[in-house]
Design brief:
The complex is a heterodimer of chains A (about 475) and B (about 60).
Chain A lengths: L19 H29 L12 H33 L6 H21 L15 H23 L8 H21 L1 E3 L5 E3 L3 H18 L3 H15 L6 H15 L14 H13 L1 H13 L5 H4 L3 H23 L2 H7 L3 H30 L7 H34 L12 H7 L1 H30 L15
Antiparallel strand pairs in A: 1-2
Chain B lengths: L2 H8 L2 H25 L4 H8 L10
The chains are: A mainly alpha (about 475), B mainly alpha (about 60).
């Protein structure tokens, strides 16, 4: 087949895409979503009601919290991105993956890493770097599996049947390359035993490298690959091309240029030199431009299809996801401003911000994609279409309860920590008094999180029964098929 | 810090390197904007935007 700019394939042509690997990652996604979110609900309960830590070292907050973050980011988030990448990359490049063997090594390697994380973190084995807690032998395994994925992904690019790489592929490329660089640089350590190592950086350098990694984990693990998914699956679900393909190119380049510098906003008011703090702040504020450009591009893709948003749960999930993307990318730049950060830092506001991005943007765009996929890949109608709608409302109301309670809690903490009385002394000198006042908000957050988890359980049951149900007759058109 | 880096940072050289990098990155970015928004490329861009729908369907 001759290479053309868009490599159009005639409808009904069998290109030989590998769907099995997509189904494998899809299944893993749903399983790990439930595990990760359940651990989140458990630790939310522990914060509201401490006896839930069971008095056992393995089940205390300090050990389960990294288990929750690793499970939702790298197990759920990772698998959902791999599901979308293995599905859309083949289709956008009009070719099968480079190597079926590498695809499977990637799948089983990634699942082994997750299992090792689930064993080591409750045992208290950690290198104490946030979002990079896993001990060095697992870090080495991550590197090997990532290289396998990278070779498979770029090998597929090399044998593509199109000239132009659709914007989603660019977002995926930034994910593959940047995560490799971030992971290796931040995890550089000298092993002392099989379970313990010492970082090659010390003091402030260690802090800066850690937050360069930490913020770009948000940027290049939870944002760029999901934007790639948005640029492929939102048009597919809405049955119309993206509003402005040109804007999507600007969105991509502006976002990757700016994101990589934003890390220092995690170290405001620290020993980091002032100029470096300001640099991080300025780049974080500038990030609002590409982020909102991308949000508008997503929302405007639905022009002329807004009536379908009322009835189609897939579009509902995606519209709310893109809206939360816009909201949390407004909140983030604002919180990175020094004066605002002085109020927000170390409070529950940060937890609220993270979850409006994670539950609202990452979670909802993933659910939208998964509902679209289960019907199109297994070629079956949803077993319970109304459950999808119930899931949507449970998740949306759950996020609102979560974020609003954490905003209120965070503002209260921030204000009470620094309130002074007329004599210029701390108005609330006993720290734990303020902590105790958080309790009602922590219960509301637990309720929000539990609703979100309930929705995810309904989704899993719905998928299980859909996949086991009868196949859609060939004559009946797929609801959101390609034209 | 690495002594070489420290020396470079203490001199004006590093400032020039960083300044030049900023100019190069900005120029590259403006190049992408120009490429994307060039009126001549309008039709091609719209065609490319339809790529998700031209993959041979469900086969």
């Amino acid at each position: 087949m001759e290479k053309t700019t868009t490599g159009t394939v005639a409808a009904g042509t069998d290109v030989g895409y590998d769907l099995d690997i997509v189904k494998m990652f899809f299944t893993a996604t749903v399983v790990w979503a439930l595990v990760g979110m359940l651990v989140g609900v458990i630790i939310a309960l522990q914060l509201a009601w401490w006896p839930a830590n069971l008095g056992l070292p393995w089940t205390t907050f300090g050990r389960l919290r990294p288990l929750h973050t690793n499970a939702v980011i790298f197990a759920f988030g990772g698998n959902v991105v791999f599901t979308g990448i293995y599905h859309s990359t083949q289709r956008l490049l009009r070719t099968r993956m480079f190597s079926d063997t590498l695809s499977r090594v990637h799948f089983w390697g990634w699942q082994s890493i997750i299992v090792l994380a689930a064993v080591t973190l409750p045992l208290g084995m950690t290198q104490s770097k946030e979002y990079a807690e896993l001990i060095w032998p697992i870090d080495v395994l991550i590197t090997v599996v990532w290289v396998v994925f990278g070779v498979n992904f770029f090998g597929t690019l090399a044998r593509r049947k199109v000239q132009h790489l659709y914007v989603a592929i660019w977002f995926y490329m930034s994910f593959v390359i940047t995560i490799a660089v971030l992971h290796i640089v931040n995890s550089l350590a000298v092993p002392a035993t099989w379970f313990r190592s010492y970082p090659v950086y010390s003091g402030l350098t260690d802090a800066l490298v850690q937050w360069w990694y930490g913020h770009n984990a948000v940027g290049f693990f939870l944002t760029t690959p999901f934007l790639g998914l948005m640029y492929y699956y939102l048009p597919r679900a809405a049955e119309r091309p993206v509003y402005s393909y040109r804007l999507s190119i600007i969105h991509f380049w502006a976002l990757v240029f700016l994101y990589i510098w934003a890390g220092p906003h995690h170290l405001l008011y620290s020993a980091l030199p002032d100029w470096a703090q300001t640099l991080g702040m300025v780049f974080s504020v500038m990030l609002i431009a590409p982020s909102w450009g991308g949000m508008l591009n997503g929302l405007l893709t639905l022009r002329g299809a807004w009536d379908r948003v009322r009835t189609d749960p897939i579009l509902k999930f995606m519209v709310v996801a893109v809206s939360f993307y816009g909201m949390s990318t407004f909140e983030g730049p604002m919180m990175s401003i020094r004066a605002v950060n002085g109020l927000a830092h170390y409070t529950n506001w940060v937890i609220g911000h993270v979850h409006s991005g994670a539950l609202g943007w990452v979670g909802m765009i993933s659910f939208g994609m998964l509902y679209w996929m289960v019907q199109n890949i297994w070629k079956r109608p949803l077993a319970h279409p109304t459950w999808a709608s119930h899931h949507f409302w449970l998740a949306t109301i759950g996020i609102v309860l979560y974020t609003v309670s954490m905003w209120a809690a965070g503002l209260m903490e921030g204000l009470q920590w620094r309130a002074l009385n007329d004599a210029g002394q701390l108005a609330n000198p006993i720290f734990v008094d303020i902590t105790a006042r958080l309790n009602p908000f922590l219960w509301i957050r637990l309720l929000g999180g539990a609703m979100y988890l309930t929705g995810a359980v309904m989704m899993a049951v719905n998928f299980w029964q859909t996949i086991r149900g009868p196949e859609r007759p060939a004559a009946e058109p797929v609801p959101v098929a390609a034209d | 810090m690495n002594p070489l880096l420290r020396e470079a940072a203490a001199s004006v050289q590093l400032g020039w390197v960083l300044g030049a990098m900023t100019v190069v990155f900005l120029a590259v970015f403006l190049g992408w904007v120009f490429w994307a928004y060039r009126p001549k490329h309008r039709a091609m861009m719209e065609e490319i935007g339809r790529m998700p729908f031209m993959d041979g369907g469900d086969a």
